[in-house]
Amino acid sequence: MKIIIIGAGQVGATLAENLASEDNDITVIDTDLARLRELQDRLDIQTVEGSGSHPDVLEQAGCNDADMLIAVSNQDETNMVACQVAHTLFKTPTKIGRIRSSAYAKYPELFSDQALPMDVRISPEKEVTKHLSRLIRYPGALQVMEFAEGRVQLVVVKAEKGGALIDQPISFLKEHMPSIQTRIAAIYRDGKSISPDGNTYIRANDEVFFLTAQRDVLDVMSELRPLDVPYRRIIIAGGGNIGERLAQSLEKEYRVKIIERDPERCRYLSETLDNTIVLNGDASRQELLLEENIESTDVFCALTNNDEANIMSSMLAKVLGVRTVMTIINNPAYVDIVQEGMIDIAISPQQTTISSLLSYIRRGDVVNVHSMRKGAAEALEAVAHGDYRSSKVVGRSIANLNLPEGATIGAIVRQDDMIVATSELVIQAEDHVIIFVTNKKQIPAVEQLFQVGLSFF
């Protein structure tokens, strides 16, 4: 595809890196020439210096024959005008825009073809909030991803001694929990992928990816590690967009406190939030954390815009006795370093946002994509269309599909039921098929499987 990306910040740069590695024709627009040069030195892409909302800049970038425009600059207004210009002057088929302000997001009619045409609106803040909320609801999970409108979940946990499945073959899971539909889709051991089957043994410290219905997540987790006590007390460091959204999503079920340095922002939060305690102060001050009983707090979420401040306040909270630390880190170079130390879960807003974008870029009817392991692996939800003649998957058993190496079908969702994939399972039209791909280079082959032949039309 020919794709124009507006904005060479953290989100735009990560997106360009992911898409350029898949043989797409990528052009990045930004006003910062130094940033563009750094990107061009690393990636096989084109760059154009200028404002992405200006018609002449878009024309120079090749918007007249682009398949897609993705406007992810830090300015909502630039993104909106860029989509408007691309629609009016260049008839760009797909326009995706980043909208950060909830003031705009409240009015979806703003983004119709008659107003400011935007086919897809994305909000990194909203995606990160959903990601954090799921982690808080499942203590001990490293990542929780939803498929089929939340009916099926792909959960990542680190196996620990005390779980019933440790040092047992995977087939033991079915014997031990015969009434629960679940499938272990992948295992990473010492950083390397293992394709699991019934005879694969689970070892302590394995990173295990399993699929199951939402209602059964905790039961399956208990087979892999001792279940943690549910979280109750949450402290959020940083009352920006993400901190505010997270508090709103949690305050009815949990005891939530926000620590924010800006007095004006504190006033706004105290008026906006219903059941959240708002504190004016610095989350890296030991005295403040001790006053707020950090040692009896379940989760400390560091959500400011400053990586260094997030890391330092998180490490201090951990030393003072908080149970779990979750930290937003924008600089990819920091993520691996801190996750090996005191910080339990490091969250990259860029990778979280990439997942929400990829489903619009994948070919075939791909309705959900989750990027994992820093973009090296993906889990996709693809809808099977057509019939035996026009489709490469419909009417065929999983054993007879030409799946590329490193791709595994974990489950299908048929109407409202999740069915664990077996070699004999036959895929039917309109099944939602959940595929785990450990080698991203195989994504095009998976996409081709779910594309319908001309005879279907």
Describe the structure.
The protein is 31% helix and 26% strand. It has 457 residues and is α/β, with parallel strands linked by helices. It has 4 domains: 2-122, Rossmann fold (3-Layer(aba) Sandwich), CATH 3.40.50; 140-224, Alpha-Beta Plaits (2-Layer Sandwich), CATH 3.30.70; 233-351, Rossmann fold (3-Layer(aba) Sandwich); 362-450, 2-Layer Sandwich (Alpha-Beta Plaits). It has a 6-stranded parallel sheet, sandwiched between helices. The chain has a 6-stranded parallel sheet with strand order 14-13-12-15-16-17, sandwiched between helices. Helix 4 links the parallel strand 4 (68-71) and strand 5 (94-98). Helix 1 (10-20) packs across helix 14, helix 6 packs parallel to helix 9 and helix 6 packs across helix 14. It is globular, with a radius of gyration of 23 Å. Residues 142-227, 367-452 form the RCK C-terminal domain. This is Trk system potassium uptake protein TrkA. GO terms for molecular function: potassium ion transmembrane transporter activity. Residues 1-124, 231-347 form the RCK N-terminal domain.
A few lines on this structure:
It holds the Pfam family TrkA_N. Helix content is 31%, strand content 26%.
Q: What is the count of helical runs? A: 15
In the CATH scheme, what's the topology name of the largest domain?
Answer: Rossmann fold
Give the rounded overall mean pLDDT: 89
CATH class of the largest domain: Alpha Beta
Summing up helix and strand content along with how strands pair, one would put the structural category as: alpha/beta
Pfam families: TrkA_C, TrkA_N
Protein name: Trk system potassium uptake protein TrkA
Domain RCK N-terminal: 1-124, 231-347
Domain RCK C-terminal: 142-227, 367-452
